[in-house]
Amino acid sequence: MSHQATLDDLVSLRRDLHRHPEPAWREFYTTARIVDELETRELDALYVGPEILDADERMAVPDDDELDEWFEKARAAGAREDILERLAGGFTGAVAVLERGEGPTIGLRVDIDALPITESEDEDHLPAAEGFRSENEGFMHACGHDAHATIGLGILDAVAASDFQGTFKVFFQPSEERVAGGKAVAEGGHLDDVDYLLALHVGLDHPTGEVVCGVDGFLAVSHFRADFTGAPAHAGAKPEEGNNANLAAAAAIQNLYGISRHSDGATRVNVGLMGGGTATNIVAEESYIEGEVRGATTELMEYMEGRAHTIIESAATMHDCDVEISVEGKAPSARSDDALRALVGDVSESVEGVDSILDSDELGGSEDATYLMQYVQDRGGLAAYVGVGTDHPGGHHTRTFDVDEATIRIAIDVLSGSIDRIAAEQP
Amino acid sequence: MSHQATLDDLVSLRRDLHRHPEPAWREFYTTARIVDELETRELDALYVGPEILDADERMAVPDDDELDEWFEKARAAGAREDILERLAGGFTGAVAVLERGEGPTIGLRVDIDALPITESEDEDHLPAAEGFRSENEGFMHACGHDAHATIGLGILDAVAASDFQGTFKVFFQPSEERVAGGKAVAEGGHLDDVDYLLALHVGLDHPTGEVVCGVDGFLAVSHFRADFTGAPAHAGAKPEEGNNANLAAAAAIQNLYGISRHSDGATRVNVGLMGGGTATNIVAEESYIEGEVRGATTELMEYMEGRAHTIIESAATMHDCDVEISVEGKAPSARSDDALRALVGDVSESVEGVDSILDSDELGGSEDATYLMQYVQDRGGLAAYVGVGTDHPGGHHTRTFDVDEATIRIAIDVLSGSIDRIAAEQP
Amino acid sequence: MSHQATLDDLVSLRRDLHRHPEPAWREFYTTARIVDELETRELDALYVGPEILDADERMAVPDDDELDEWFEKARAAGAREDILERLAGGFTGAVAVLERGEGPTIGLRVDIDALPITESEDEDHLPAAEGFRSENEGFMHACGHDAHATIGLGILDAVAASDFQGTFKVFFQPSEERVAGGKAVAEGGHLDDVDYLLALHVGLDHPTGEVVCGVDGFLAVSHFRADFTGAPAHAGAKPEEGNNANLAAAAAIQNLYGISRHSDGATRVNVGLMGGGTATNIVAEESYIEGEVRGATTELMEYMEGRAHTIIESAATMHDCDVEISVEGKAPSARSDDALRALVGDVSESVEGVDSILDSDELGGSEDATYLMQYVQDRGGLAAYVGVGTDHPGGHHTRTFDVDEATIRIAIDVLSGSIDRIAAEQP
Amino acid sequence: MSHQATLDDLVSLRRDLHRHPEPAWREFYTTARIVDELETRELDALYVGPEILDADERMAVPDDDELDEWFEKARAAGAREDILERLAGGFTGAVAVLERGEGPTIGLRVDIDALPITESEDEDHLPAAEGFRSENEGFMHACGHDAHATIGLGILDAVAASDFQGTFKVFFQPSEERVAGGKAVAEGGHLDDVDYLLALHVGLDHPTGEVVCGVDGFLAVSHFRADFTGAPAHAGAKPEEGNNANLAAAAAIQNLYGISRHSDGATRVNVGLMGGGTATNIVAEESYIEGEVRGATTELMEYMEGRAHTIIESAATMHDCDVEISVEGKAPSARSDDALRALVGDVSESVEGVDSILDSDELGGSEDATYLMQYVQDRGGLAAYVGVGTDHPGGHHTRTFDVDEATIRIAIDVLSGSIDRIAAEQP
């Protein structure tokens, strides 16, 4: 019989992952650790790295130097060499498959990447106090993906130990924080036969004991980067010979914020990052902006994206510059299906420790689980994004974020119970 | 009798300085090397570091970490420890004084700093071919200040060996490239009794053998840096809570370029550098711009500076941000006096190797020797900025710039001859 | 007994008003015609012009020349001289009061002004075909306020003829199209004792026979005008002496559209009008912009308004200009009360010609009836804004808009029935 | 023998022209009056209206309604019907030719149009006091072209009465104030054989008795108008359907002022006029800007013009608008030839009333006499622009401008003397 993790094992695993936070496409240690665990189970299939996704659809992949640096870091931290080799080139993530006879195919998606945030060293911060603070300085699991990966494994064990009938796949997806991995995984082939998909997130400002059966209100998002190239010139001697990349970027920024509001619903635009130039007395040859547009629906996001690209290109033309625009991340909107929402609520009723059940809540942000949800829904399947509350001292994406580990067991029970019930009822 | 450098000595010194290029306020090795030389001469006074300038008027002084790094680099390169100690805190530069009886006080100003440019490794580039390429990678004497310092020492020796009557002071001024040192040295006290001031520059697109008796057309300049501070916010969830520092900077850039032309003469404006923000999905809390304004006269520069500050402050207010503006460098305009121009021309006639003498030429750029010139002129003295041609393969401020070392002797003869003549004729 | 208009009378009245469309604060003929009608009824009170509003709260009042011109036009069209005299200074509108014993005080608000639109001359356009096209060229009842005033009179007659017990007030409000009259009327004193308020609008893209019991989704709005004053200068000879009012306006426009979206709901911004300058070769001394901000709630509108004023003032400061900002119109958001909504629906069930009843619909625009609704609601009363469908060939605010006159009778029945029922049930 | 005007006649003529100021291409009365005078002389040729210019090169021609209005005004003022007919369509201006045997062909250019300025009614303003104030309210000879036309006639008479040998042509050029007529006249054929060209201007801040032998410093200029067309939309209900013409214009304005300064010399840019939109709540469908660019040389003006057009087109594209750009006026730079300058100075020495002779002065503005000067110079001829001082109480282009009529005689003597001398000496 397959290995079965105890709760203590799972807490240890979560803390180990927490000590080794890795950002998008650099989850080498994380993937190796997960695969190492998975190999101790009796699985019907296990796909790793390039086997789980459509390589052409990966977004925001770092350059080789950057990938090498994190690869070496993972090796130094003790990641298994034979697994690491399968991840070369930033092909992180894994898909584990259980086949248990006749029945529907059910998918579970968990994400595994971390954030470029420096973790608190404060005594009140549990990971600091108990010795599992980030060892990759400047990076941190500040959104609970360490818990997500751990819960994913726990659910796999629970489903394996149940009388589940059907096929169960767990997707350990890389690169969610930049919404850069969801599309590649959605189009990687392993979702094609999935009838039901669940995704989960801990926290989201809900306390331990609260369950949100189906989260909605995902803002569709598109991240862009625009690199402007002009011509340098000495600003005192020959200013007219410059094609001013800083001025082109400034014109773009001013006008991007001026994209018209839309009567169909909420939209957003932000130029979060900008930079350019080399010296005060040189007309800037190069500049860049990085930003994002969002919409309450995919159509609204696409309206914003279309206008944004027109504006950026015109700003370049206006100042005799060239520009290259790249999409660095993207996610559609999506909705949780009511049938699954009801089922999850019903299951949650009898889970120990659950004391509040919300039918739905608005995310108000973006997530690329929506690519997977939409992929399944477009083929006639059902999907839901389940929120499992956790007491988190600091907010998401802050340096004092932490997960109440009691959540791990509750999440496993809610989700594995739901998966068993879906297989049984096929709603 | 005082030590007297041979031409070979001077070429060696220039090449040693060329190997150790140091940027503004970090000329530790350079100053130590010059002072070491000066101490072998019979001087009447030698002022070093804080003794030569008004500390309050230094602009663009780097932070302590940066200063320490270069201090250690100078120590490692063999700079004399006892001199280095006198330069702590970025107090570089020196003033050497000869007193030779009754007569006028004459000053000579040379600058000693280098540029943040990576020197060519090409075989055709003499310093690379002959082994005196920059050892401070990323920095380079690309404007001939290594030659200026060397020539300053040579002139001191020549005047000392002549029948000069009066007082002669050589100002080895730090931090010209950022026009950040001239004002502090001008107001350091040592110019108060100077009756005549000469400054010199090699090259300026004039070949070896050509002398420009008095350069004019200095654009007055002011370098500014503006740091915008707003409030961060999640661009998807709470965009209205952000005070957008990137947008404030963009509004400033757009409007700075729109400052009205002036009917009194040429003006310039450039935002050479910009940056801001932390992530695509965060409204930027901080941003900055660095730039410069210039004018054909000091008044025109001040018109531009006044308008620029108003625009920057309004752009901040407009987007509910704060802004701090700092002046990072500044230089007035100035004119060479005709009496000195004529005298230099006359002396040059009989200098061997001089085959072309121009009365004047336009610099078309900025220089903070103008602070020293103006200081002397405002007190009734005369000043001239002398150009000594040199064949330079690459342009000024390019990675293949180099000085024809034959210029060293010519410059010493032209300037020391002029100084002797000034003392004799007191024009 | 009081005069009672027949349906034919009402159609004639509507067509007469349609022939004399008058814009905000210039409804001289319209008011005189209404008052003339009212004086034939047995009213308990009739307030005219300055008696109905708080004069300090009028917005966007035209200058005297403009008022005089329309005053004369009304006189020439045959308006009663004695009534006209009471309207001098642009004090248009009236309030009619019926007192019928014990019972609640119920108000009905109708608006009476027209739009600056040139009416179609097309044969297919009924007013053109049947000879009641606008006689004030360039102005038109393109939003049905001619019908509103007529319906108001019809309801007054119907209530007077019923067994209504209580007090009934009809507010013939001027200057709705510019949202410039609602506030003044709301604060005019006559609402202080009103327990229930109904307002009505025909059309709104609903066909004849459809009733919307309580319209919601009023965008709060604020109209602004900003007048920039700089200094003129010859653009060739002395450009630097100009303080450029056109440039200030352009900076304001660019940045107004960039006000951040708000996570609490929909916002809007528009600079609909701009103008400035006198000649190509003169730096513009004067310029102006006129625009509006809106919000799904009053708070959101105020957020937009606050940001807009900061931006406009900073744009002026930025370019050394002065600016005067005036609020030219304003309306809060509001909601129809559910109790009235239900009652209106119930009454409509038995009105002949009503074949579709909608509980609510979104206006998606702005209306200053909201001032009156809010005034009543703030004092514990109830209010509803009732939509009465009408087949209108062209859209609202287009030159082919027209009202299906069958609507007049339906509207009178729905509203007078509701008023009787409110008095009886006091919900 | 030809009629010869006395000084009294000339003063009368000037005052008559002053009473009938007419703007560009509408100089119907003015041309008719001049032609009427010319027909009393013995001329060898007289060209009127379409015969003097290249019709395709006329700029800024008003529309037919506007032309008709002024045509009727001229008729009403008593202009000769037979001459008026030759001017139909805005073909104003005339060329008079004297042939006096062998000798060079010499041209004289005077301009005849007025400005859209309301003339002062002040008692101190001589034309008001003496009854020859403008009868075309809102228009005024505020730049002395009434005197120019008069002086042109006086010079013709003087040359005719002298022993001049050669051919002499006087160009009465329309539409200088908008720099819209010079090009058409330059290319009209009558300059092809001109060897020497003189142009003249009174005043220019020089007092009566001062002559400027050759004015220089003409800024080349190009006037543009850009009409933006977007799509209208209701700003509250459907803002996203608008293509915002006001926003496009604002983006254009902001960026036009940001065109880089040029190291070759002075440039200018101004958007003097702007307008757009129909209502605060409508996204503007149409807007326009009118402005100008200038340069110290024709090349600099063309640099500005090229950049301006790119910016305007990009601003339109940026906001999904179309734009049409038209050139409404244009003039190159030019220089007065030194040989003529010297000759005029020499002649002026002996002219009674001349007490100050300046070799040259800078205009600092624009003039389309430069088209004619350049046309002659390009074909090997010489040209000079002569300034004849006049005491003018108010500045040029102000409502109190007036000409000291003593200047008329001085100008005739200086110019006719110069023409005789040119013919004699052929410098």
Automatic annotation (TrEMBL), chains A, B, C, D:
GO terms for cellular component: cytoplasm. Mn(2+) 2 binds at residues 143, 145, 177, 201. Its cofactor is Mn(2+). InterPro entries: Amidohydrolase (IPR017439), Bact_exopeptidase_dim_dom (IPR036264), Peptidase_M20 (IPR002933), Peptidase_M20/M20A_hydrolases (IPR052030), Peptidase_M20_dimer (IPR011650). Transmembrane segments: none annotated. The Mn(2+) ion enhances activity. GO terms for molecular function: dipeptidase activity; metal ion binding; para-aminobenzoyl-glutamate hydrolase activity. Keywords: Hydrolase, Manganese, Metal-binding. It comes from the Archaea. Residues 224-314 form the Peptidase M20 dimerisation domain. SUPFAM superfamilies: Bacterial exopeptidase dimerisation domain (SSF55031), Zn-dependent exopeptidases (SSF53187). Mn(2+) 1 binds at residue 397. Coiled coil: none annotated. One of its GO terms (biological process) is folic acid catabolic process. The keyword Membrane does not apply. This is N-acyl-L-amino acid amidohydrolase.
